[in-house]
Amino acid sequence: MGSWGRPGLARGWFTGAWPLVALLGATAPAMAQVSGEVLVGRVDDSLVSASPPADEIPLPGELAEPRTVLLPQPVYPRAARAARQEGRVMVCFTLDERGMVRAPAVRSSTDAVFNQPVLDAISAARFTPAKVGRQPVRSTACRTFLFVLR
Asked: What pTM does this model have?
């Protein structure tokens, strides 16, 4: 469970927060890099949504990491479910200054049957943008989706 919700309200959840991986130097456009994990399986709701908690006003130059606003759950492929197949897909993407997902790409996958549902879900996701001070910045992120039968 992450900071965005309670178990039972969502079909999946992040393990951990948005750990910061890197912030590029001041001469390049500001960009942050983050990662996380999502569990896909049998639960009731089909969408994950949350309002980000109220933050303190960031100090000038301080990095505010992006937060999940909406994360649709990938559809578990019928063929994989029928075959009792579980899997893992890591997808990396860019978040623009408005928190919109751009250029999602599968970084690794246990089976291609899971790739398109993950790309569809992450393409529909919405985030708050990363910020340096009060200025929204482009960031990169990776999410690992775990397809688990229950």
From this structure: 0.65
